[in-house]
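Help wanted!
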Amino acid sequence: MMSLYDQLPILVITLPLLAAPVVAVLPGRGKLPWLFATIASALTFLIAISLACRVMENGTIPYLLGNWEAPYGIVLSIGPLSVLMAIVISGASLAGLFVSLGGMDKEVPPPHQPLLYACWLLVMAGLIGIVTTGDAFNVFVFMEVSSLASYVMVANGPNRQALPASFKYLVTGTFGATFYLIGVGYLYMMTGTLNMADLSARLADVADTMPVLIAGGFLMLGLGMKGALFPMHAWMPNAYQFAPSPVAAFFAACSTKVPLFVMVRVLYEIVGHHLGSYGELLSGMMMTLSVIAFIVGSLIAIYSEDLKRVLGYSSVAQIGYMVLGICLGTSAGLTAASIHMFNHALMKAALFAAVAAVVVRTGSSKIEDLAGIGKKMPLTMLGFALAGLSLIGVPLTAGFISKWYLIKAILEIGPLGIFLTILILLSSLMAVVYIWKVIEVAYFKPTKIEIPDARTEAPVSILIVLWILVLANFWFGIDPEFVLSLARSEAVDVLGVSK
Amino acid sequence: MTDQFILLSAIAVPLIGAIIIALSGHSQNLRDSLMVAGATLGFITVLCLLPSVLAGNPPKASVIEIMPGLELSFAIEPLGMVFALVASGLWILTSIYGIGYMRGAEEKHQTRFFACFSIAIFAALGIAFAANMFTLFIFYEVLSISTYPLVAHKGDELARKGARTYLALLIGTSIGLMLPAMLVVWYMTGTLDFTPGGILEGKVERGVGAVLLLLFMFGIGKAALMPFHRWLPSAMVAPTPVSALLHAVAVVKAGVFTVLKVSIYLFGLEYLKELWSNDVIMWVAAFSLIAASLVAMQKTNLKARLAYSTVSQLSYITLGAMLASELSIVGGGLHIVMHAFGKITLFFCAGAIYVAAHKTEIPEMDGLARKMPVTMGAFLIGALSVIGAPPLGGFWSKWNLMLGAVDAQHSIMIAVFLLSTLLNIAYLLPPVIRAFLLKPAQSDGEPGIQEAPLFCLVPLTLTALGALCLFFLADPIRTFIGSIFPGGL
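Answered by r_m:
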């Protein structure tokens, strides 16, 4: 007899998936679609947390769909990193929805909102599907579910430029997904299976053959495009800039990290060990790109004029850190990358929530229009500044923990590590510059036009979310045990090293 | 338990004070009196810790362990105790002075100003009591960030530009140089605790240690070792109370305090002496010491001259740390105290002159002593103390530093100290001479000039008297600092 409790692994996907069509047909006036989507997100969030507790106690949860045995049926395989990502995704969705409560009406006309929220849930379902499934082809299916819905969401932006942004996103996204599919196709050709565990076992026989090498290349290329790894990042800052602000908050926190999660699976659990001498070459190339990503990303962020764009390029840089950690191929590197996936979600969600609040009140996210906003919206800007500290990596914030572990992992690889450490610190310093550029304008630049002195603080719902996230940044900077233990046990699961 | 509680509350009082100041911004008088009360309470709490430290039973308090070997924890040792007493004690006077100055100069955003000021003191106390390098680093960064709004206070292009240089150099050096050094130390030794005798001996090779020393010494930007000293003159755009307490006492002394802590408790004096880079830093410090004095002579703006004088005086302490003898360390510790009283007096006077007479350039100050005798008298005492003339406190710190130079067999450094003393005279006494002896410029009679408000005048008189008293009180302090070495001096 199976209880509902045993079905939680599948519910975490199907709940938002089934809720989506319901939201789509709800009436557009009033807050009903929002409420329904929020309840669905909250439930998903709770399920994700309960799964996390289970994983922390018992290790990876296998779940057989329809009770079909493993290589033939579809399995879900929920490991430590999966639950961490599921928490990030559903949490980001919840946070984004609360930001929407105060900020969506200004940017998207109410009649469009039911469809938008339906897509919202589809994105969440798709992303969670990607991180929980144990089947390489299912990843593609869920990827398409989430991507198609997210193109719609970006296109809903208040500006006409949202359409080209969404189109750019669509083109890159489709290319990425197609490349991924080609890679999976080659693997299927060589092994006749799509189950990840099975793939890994069977690939051992055909390791280092041309089709497998090509598959590895295509998989990484596709995921790099999806994950906005430099130089395939151009779609991302655009999409964030022109999407409705709450949507940007949701996406910035989780959407690019999911392809990176798949990258972990591909590199460590599927083809990584079967590429022969080319494995090193591949990870070397990826590392080079990631280093360029965090230097160039930070540099462009410094010279960007729009707040959302600054944060978008900062994400390009942060993704560089994560890919670097993943491609080190060591347990410490994987741990660092996992930690940063979680922590970066916290800081970016907080920063974008603050930006959404600013957009609600001023209608603009241009940095020069922010003059004097520190006085008008003190709580919002203080939240922004604190989350910015976390992005920079100041001690006692989550960002510090990320950087500390990343640098520790890098120092392990020898002399090259020292050089990379210097580059990482350089990029942190650039983060100081682009965050401070905003702070300086917000607090110290006199306003051009005399604005009434009254405070126009952000809507309460946004403020609450913002401050919960800011406090979380400090909480996980002071007591990172929860994230650490999940990240470590993932590294142990994947690499079989205990440390 | 109780000692622990006092220790934590001593650090927390200024933070709570900051919140109270921020909340009571609607009523100026209420806010300002609460601030002075908070400052006094803070000093008393710090003072309460003194008996148990003197009894050789210093309290420790651990707040939380973030990662293995990385703890947020506090412990008191003599050097930190002295620094905390100086910072919190002078904060009372500065807050009183600040009230007079900010009202007199009709500055805006006073609530933000005083709240950030309070946070800066909180950070300084955190630095003073930090039990390990990690904790110290956290508060070091808090100090950099919380003082940024104070430097950028005026908000005009000049202030923002100065504040940008300020933050860029302080954060740049700390994240770019000090943090990696910390990381390497932690990676190689597994701890960052301040341990008597150092933690590197036997765990880190001399060659690596030498590089670490370079990273630390240049990374502690607040110690203003050349070429990373530019932030200090830039910070002079801030209102004078900031320059007085923060950029003559709390911030810069936090820098040299960190230098001393790192030298004594991370490297250990024996280990430090054997590093090749020790000599390099020693000569860089000697160069900064002389060069900054020479630059100071060229400056006609009073605050700029004092700023370069501070750069020079900070190098005394770095030099003392690099000499790595017990006497020179004690001399460095004493200099933290002595220079604090001398320099804060000078800045208080500069501020009083600005408030009362709106003068900032030295040539404008001819004959000013006829109008402002008390201020200029205090300026003279402060200047003499910084120069190191008896009977003023500054004499003893230089005395010990020079003894330390002999002790460490670097007698040539005595020449450096003496040369710099001569230069001190050359740049600190002319304003006094002009004010007392020259006739005021004829063209503008300016009959309106009189002494600054009492709020300004009383603190600067007290600090000047303090500099005088320290001449006679030097020995207990010297013995107290000396007790960091087993067996004392």
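OP: Thanks! One thing I noticed: Chain B has a mean pLDDT of 84.
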